[in-house]
């Protein structure tokens, strides 16, 4: 790889989203059955009777997971779940996955078995077929690439770019817990490094650890939509933090929004951990990521239909673009949301 | 990642194919539209009017490519081509791809642009839509994961496991050139290491270099089958060397075969390079890999239809399983073929 005389820009100048925009700006779609390409949780291919919904993720050791505290079985499980979450975010049902793994010499057959135990468990739990993949060597560590394929009728698919003024913004479950789990694991790692004899003190933290190490995808919400006859007007899964996902919906839909701090669902365990760690739980919810909850908008007339479901939380509404994407704090201040997102590419500086 | 007290086996004990067999032996298929799972060039999903054919590959720096001598644009192009080759090997037409890339801090925006230039060029050349993907950091180098999605009518799809006795075994193009190209590049790398001032002497080797650095997939052959009304009885692409691919067809189809040394197509450039490097071109053809030609069987009654096409070479025929998979040498000896395959996992020892 030679550096030629042309100016070379550091990737951090663009950031992750900027880089993706930059490299995909010239991409052309030629097949008329490609009804959604880059720019949503998944691509959509129309096969006539049904649409196929396709998403892919590449997880790399040291970036997306740390094997010091991630059990391999959990890693296999989570690798599948994060992809299925993208399929559900299209209001589709995952049916198949492929798994490619690159492994270095430090891994044994039993390690690979543990990863596949987790993968198979997720396949069972979500009723998904493992249909293909690839296993190869790596010089330096573990990489896992998963592609998930789902199905939906064309008219049922929900995109990011179709939210409209006055729609109600909702999130499922609660936010920020996975981030708190990660902070706990990182703390214990540092303590262990300083005193290799110590045992990690993880008792009483089951919930936030489970949210970080073994998250679940919101299959139940997609089933519920079907059951109660709701089609969200837009949807995205929360992998990079609430702020970032709200910004995606607003940008793609060309709208603004107003959300309310006191409506953002945060679990008691997350609050408790926040106090202990001196991390504002709200920041964890807005920018932490890895919650794998769903963020969606519904027509205001559908609000009645969801009001009895405790796992769905209306947090605000869609507004004109001119209003921006703002959060009204508990003290009544209006704060512009920041797409903190996932800044690994910047962290490399 | 803890080593527990259970016995841990080195992956090299199983080898690549053994490892894949081992980890996939418990995989169950639950959806009736998954008509082919693991075990062919691609998985097949039935959508009623049409089937979707899906394949994926994960390419890792230092294992599948060496950036010392691989131009990034070529790497992008080749990464797409190796996946499309798997789609053609199912007698299907590729339509969409997704691309995930993990990059370390040594890469600039311009480097990524070069990779995507190659990816976009391949998409144009093969009329494929880039529909999704992922970009993330890596601590150690470049990984590229591509999933290709193709289409075919259910009745047109060709599998590995359907070769039958007396079918004619054919290969397209010529074999062993990509391996010779790799040897040349490796030699120049060593010379450069010893004398960093020297320029590589690659003149006159265009053909074998192109076969290694910028291979093409056999779209033309799939079109030809359609044109002349042939459906192969089995097919596979040659990524790991002729021997290995023949063994796959024989094992999956539960048959044996007899091929003839003097029928194996080897280009004059490959012969010439073989002499220079003291590498038997036949060994490069049998075990070299990365040719991305097609190996297929046809009913003996179809032999007439292909005889005028110079890019198709009948090399032998399918026999009863009891005869094994053998090659008759020019001196009349019968040699059992060995599935040398792709032994990176063993090389790690």
Overview of the structural elements:
Two copies of one chain form a homodimer. The first copy, chain A, is built from eleven helices and 13 strands. Chain A is α+β, with helices and mostly antiparallel strands and 349 residues long. Chain A folds into two domains: 34-156, 2-Layer Sandwich (60s Ribosomal Protein L30, Chain: A); 168-347, PurM-like C-terminal domain (Phosphoribosyl-aminoimidazole Synthetase, Chain A, domain 2), CATH 3.90.650.10. In chain A, the strands form two sheets. Chain A has a seven-stranded mixed β-sheet with strand order 8-10-7-11-9-12-13, with helices on both faces. A six-stranded mixed β-sheet of chain A has the order 1-2-3-6-4-5, with helices on one face. In chain A, helix 4 packs across helix 5. The longest helix of chain A is centred in the middle third of the chain and has 18 residues, at 177-194. In chain A, 53% of the residues are buried. Chains A and B meet through helix 1, strand 3, strand 4, helix 3 and strand 5 of A and helix 1, strand 3, strand 4, helix 3 and strand 5 of B.
Architecture blueprint of SSEs:
Two copies of one chain form a homodimer.
Chain A: H1 15-24, E1 34-36, E2 43-46, E3 51-60, H2 72-88, E4 93-103, H3 109-125, E5 129-137, E6 143-152, E7 168-172, H4 177-194, H5 206-213, H6 219-228, E8 234-238, H7 242-253, E9 256-260, H8 268-277, H9 281-287, E10 293-298, H10 303-306, E11 312-319, E12 325-328, E13 334-336, H11 344-347
Parallel strand pairs in A: 4-5, 9-12
Antiparallel strand pairs in A: 1-2, 2-3, 3-6, 4-6, 7-10, 7-11, 8-10, 9-11, 12-13
């Amino acid at each position: 790889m030679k550096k030629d005389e042309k100016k070379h820009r550091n990737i951090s100048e663009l950031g992750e989203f900027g880089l993706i925009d930059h490299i995909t700006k010239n991409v052309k779609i030629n097949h008329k059955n490609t009804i959604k390409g880059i720019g949503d949780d998944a691509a959509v291919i129309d096969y006539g009777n049904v649409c196929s919904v396709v998403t892919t993720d590449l997880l790399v050791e040291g970036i997306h997971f740390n094997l010091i505290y991630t059990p391999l079985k959990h890693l296999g499980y989570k690798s599948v779940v994060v992809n299925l979450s993208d399929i559900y975010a299209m209001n589709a049902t995952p049916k198949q996955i492929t798994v490619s793994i690159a492994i270095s010499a430090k891994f044994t057959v039993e390690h690979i078995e543990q990863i596949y135990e987790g993968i198979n468990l997720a396949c069972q739990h979500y009723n998904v077929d493992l249909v293909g993949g690839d296993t190869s060597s790596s010089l330096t560590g573990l990489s896992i690439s998963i592609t998930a394929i789902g199905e939906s009728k064309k008219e049922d698919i929900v995109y990011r770019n179709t939210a409209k003024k006055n729609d109600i913004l909702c999130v499922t479950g609660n936010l920020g817990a996975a981030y708190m789990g990660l902070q706990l694991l990182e703390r214990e790692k540092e303590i262990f490094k300083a005193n290799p004899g110590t045992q990690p003190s993880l008792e009483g933290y089951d919930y936030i650890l489970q949210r970080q190490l073994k998250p679940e995808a919101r299959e139940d919400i997609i089933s519920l939509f079907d059951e109660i006859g709701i089609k969200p007007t837009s949807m995205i899964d929360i992998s990079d933090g609430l702020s970032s996902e709200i910004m995606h919906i607003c940008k793609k839909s060309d709208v603004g929004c107003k959300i309310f701090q006191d409506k953002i669902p945060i679990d008691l365990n997350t609050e408790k951990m926040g106090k202990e760690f001196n991390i504002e739980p709200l920041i964890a919810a807005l920018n932490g990521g890895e919650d794998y909850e769903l963020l969606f908008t519904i027509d205001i007339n559908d609000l009645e239909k969801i009001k009895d479901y405790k796992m769905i939380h209306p947090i605000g509404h869609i507004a004109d673009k001119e209003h921006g994407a703002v959060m009204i704090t508990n003290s009544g201040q209006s704060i512009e949301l920041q797409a903190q997102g996932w800044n690994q590419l910047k962290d490399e500086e």
